[in-house]
Amino acid sequence: MAEEVSSQMNSLSISETNPSSSATISLVSGDDIVFKVEPTIAKEMETVQSFIDETDGKITTIPLPNISSHDLPYVIEYCEKSIAGKITKEFEAEFVKKLNNEEVKELFLAANYLNIKKLLDFLSQVIADRIANKSVEYVRRYFGIENDFTPEEEAKLREELAWTFTGVDPDDEDEN
Amino acid sequence: RVKRVKEKIVCILLLGLNVSTLVNTEMNLLHPSHSRRRTPNASLSPTFIPNELVTDVLSHLTVKPLLRLRCVCKSWNSLISDPTFVKLHLHRSSQNAFYTLVSGIDFIVASFRFDPLLKNSPIIFKLPKDPYYQSNNNEFQNVVGSCNGLICLVGSSRVNENIECWFRIWNPATRTLSRRLGSFRDDLSTTRYNFTFGFDKSNNTYKVVALTRKIRVFTLQDNAWRNIQNPPEVHYYAMAKLVYLSGSVNWLAIHNHFGLTNKPFVIISLDLVTETYTQLLPPEGEVSFINHNLTVLNDCLCFSHDFKQTHFVIWKMKEFGDENSWTQFLKISYNNLQIDYPFNGFNLSLLPLCYSEKNDTLLLTNQYREGSILYNWKDNTLEKIHGPWFYTCVNFVESLESYC
Asked: Which stretches make up the F-box domain (chain B) (predicted)?
C-alpha cells in the first residue's frame, strides 16, 4: 500500500511540473513514476504509439515496466530534440557526456524496447565508439561475456591478428 | 503482489501490441531479468545486451577493432566472420565511403578523404608482403577498380614472346591479398588489355571484365574466364578505358561506320548481372571528339575532352543511363591550369580524378607529366601536388569482404 501512495505522490509532483492538457500521454516507468508527454513525443516511440493505436487512443496511460524513472527523462529529452529537428552533433556529444557506460547500455535497451530507431542507432554508435580502442578483456567485462576459447586457441588467434592489437587504450576500471 | 502487478502489465502490453511490435519486444517482455528496476550503479553485474543488439553495435565498428574483437569469445569470432554480418557491416560502412587516390609508385595506395585534402597528409596503405610476388623488371601492378572495400590489382610479366596477365584482390582494411587469379598468357602483339572490377548483386559475386578484341568475364565464384557475346555492333575499341559504375562496366567505342556520321562515338554499358549491353550517347552540342576520356567522377559518369586546343571540358551524366541528363560541369582554359596543350599524340593526358563541391576544388592528374593539380574553379587558383603521383581515384569503403 505504501508503494502505491508514494507513486501517486510522485505522479502528482510530476504533473505539477508538467502542466498537462487532456491529450497528454502518461508513461509509467518500471518504478511507477508517471511522466506526462505530448502525443507527438509518444509518436517517436513506436512501441508506445502502436499501443495507443491498437486501443484507438482510448488508453493514454502506458506502463513501461522495462524502463526506469532514471532513464525515461533522457529518452524523452532525445525525442523532444528529434521532433524539433535539433539533433546536432553538439547536442549528441553533450547528451552522452553525462552518461556512464552502464547508463548508455540501459538507454540503449530502452531505445530498443520503445523502438526509437534514431536513438537506437545513435547509442549503438556511442557504444561502438566506447569500445573501439579497448582491450579484449575490457570488452568481455563490458558485455559480461565469458571467454570460451582454450588458452591455445586464443593464443593462436591473437597471433594471427597481432597487427590489430596496436593502439589499444590501457584498461581503466573506473570508467563504469 | 508485485509479481502479479508485473504480470498484469505484461498482459496489457501483450494484448495491446500488434504482432510486429511483439516480435521486437518479446525478448524484453519474456526476460524480466533484462529489466532494470534499480538505480544506476546499484548492481554489480553489467547490464545484459541481447545478441541481436550486440550485432548491431559491432556493425558500427571499423575493421581493425572488429578483427581484434574476434578474440572475445567463440560466438563473436564466428559472428564477425559470418557473411551476413560482413554484408551488414558493409552496408553501414558504405555511409562513410571516401575517395581514395591511388599512386603507382612502389605499389602503395595513398588514401584520404578528399574534403580536407589540403590540410591532411595522406594515409598510406602498404601492400602486404607477398610470397607470390616475383620482382621482375617487366612486371607491373596496376589498380583497375575498387568495389565494397576490395581493390583489384592487375599484374603482368613477359614470358618469352608472350605476356602473362593475372590479377589479385586486395583488402587494405583486413590486410589480405589474394593469390594470383585468372592467370592467362597471350601473344605480345595482342591489343593491350583493359580491365575493370565490379560486383554482380544478383549472383553475389565479383567479376573482372577484360576487354580486348573480345570481351571476357572472370567470375570469382567460378574462378574461370568466359568469353561473352560482343556488343551488337562491331566496335573498334580505341583507347577504351573501362569504368565501373552502378553495377555496370562502361567504355567509349567508335562506330564501325566512322566518318559517315556526326556522332561517331557511343558509350557501351555492360550490365554485370545480365551480361547484356545498352548504348548511351555522349553529350550533344559543342563536343569535340578528339582527346576524349570517359571517367567516373564522384560517382557520376563523366566525359571529358579538349575544346579547340584552348580548354578542357568535363560533362557529367547526372542520372546514370539518362542521356538527357548530360550537363557541362566545367570548362577550364589550359592557361588557368598553367599547362600547355596536354595532348600526347594519342589522347588527352589530363584526367579528372575527383572534386569537392564544398571547396569548389577539382583534382586532376596529368598522366604523361606525372603530376597532379588541385584547381579551385571559384577563385581560379591552382596548386600543384608534389610527391606521389596519383593516377586513379576510387571510392573506397572499409569492409570485411574477402575475395573467396
From this structure: 43-88
